[in-house]
Design goal:
The chain is α/β, with parallel strands linked by helices. Helix content is 38%, strand content 19%. The chain is built from 11 helices and 9 strands. The structure holds adenosine monophosphate (AMP).
Length: 291
């Protein structure tokens, strides 16, 4: 595995791969890798000749009161994991490589990309500017890496839809590939932030997924969606979760629905805090795909 830190080195690798006719796969991450990230690397490995994984904790997508400084950065371990999974290139650019000439100030990056139709609901409500920061940096990285295929997790379904929309609307010459949510054996969706859960919260955290599954069963057995949503919120609150949202949305447009009778696939989306950690999860409501 090559560890590449500059855009210039990466471009040289890209030219060589192109000359050899290689299909280039790309997995963007913020590091603190777990099986969720590595499953995307595995998918890329199956489908591509050259697998590139980037690790960059993107300041543009963190709010001022969020955990940018304390976000875990276990670099040695991450590199070992990527090597184990047969990654060809780990792209680890420095801050100045990505933001040349800029100090550690978040708001002086001149260009902002936005997918407004999908960015203000769900997580966008509480994390203002988060998705604009995410999509701005993602476009920058897609331009540096220039992959044929890029791999994104359904765990962050809103993010995935925003990237798919960016690629579609801007006709970016890349295919976005979805990876299913990877879970701990007890059902908790894997996340780099799970290690911040204390023992008690860690024991309760899988209940989030359990409640979503119960809700799905109730909807499928014919209970009205608004009743099921209200009961789900109450159940989570009684388990100690501070629910930020628990809603059903169309998968494509991410607009909220109040019934599942329409022709389009619908998903349940949840964000809730537990023991100081913000947990996210989603499961398909109307289709038995993936989860
Ligand atoms: P992050 O490092 O959190 O920015 O995530 C990098 C990529 O890994 C994103 O496409 C995430 O959606 C994906 N990812 C994170 N957690 C999981 C998971 N549990 N299962 C599948 N993909 C995941």
């Amino acid at each position: 595995m090559k560890v590449v830190t500059t855009a210039g080195e990466l471009a040289a690798e890209w030219e060589a791969a192109r000359r050899a006719g290689a299909v280039i796969g790309y997995v963007p991450t913020m590091g603190a890798l777990h099986e969720g990230h590595l499953s995307l690397v595995g998918l890329a490995r199956e489908e591509c000749d050259l697998v590139i994984c980037s690790i960059f904790v993107n300041p543009l997508q963190f709010g001022l009161d969020e955990d940018f400084e304390s976000y875990p950065r276990p670099m040695e371990r991450d590199l070992e994991l990527l090597k184990d999974r047969d990654t060809d290139i780990a792209f680890l650019p420095s801050w100045t490589e990505i933001f040349p000439g800029r100090e550690r100030v978040l708001d002086d990056f001149g260009t902002h990309v936005s997918v407004p139709r999908l960015s203000h609901q769900l997580c966008g409500r509480s994390r203002e500017g988060h998705f604009d920061g995410m999509v701005t940096e993602s476009l920058l990285f897609l331009n540096l890496v220039r992959p044929d295929r890029t791999y994104w997790g359904e765990k962050d379904f809103q993010q995935l839809r925003i990237i798919e929309t960016l690629v579609q609307d801007m006709r970016l010459p890349v295919t976005v590939v979805r990876g299913a949510t990877k879970r701990e054996p007890d059902g908790l969706a894997m996340s780099s932030r799970n290690k911040n859960l204390g023992p008690e919260a860690r024991a309760t955290a899988p209940r989030l997924r359990g409640v979503l599954e119960d809700m799905r069963a109730r909807v499928r057995s014919g209970e009205p969606l608004p009743t099921v949503l209200a009961a789900g919120r109450e159940r989570l609150a009684s388990l100690g979760f501070a629910v930020e949202y628990l809603v059903a949305c169309e998968e494509e447009a991410l607009t909220e629905v109040r019934s599942v009778d329409g022709p389009v696939p619908v998903r349940l989306f949840a964000a809730a805090r537990l023991g100081g950690v913000r947990l996210l999860d989603n499961i398909p409501l109307t289709e038995a795909n993936h989860d």
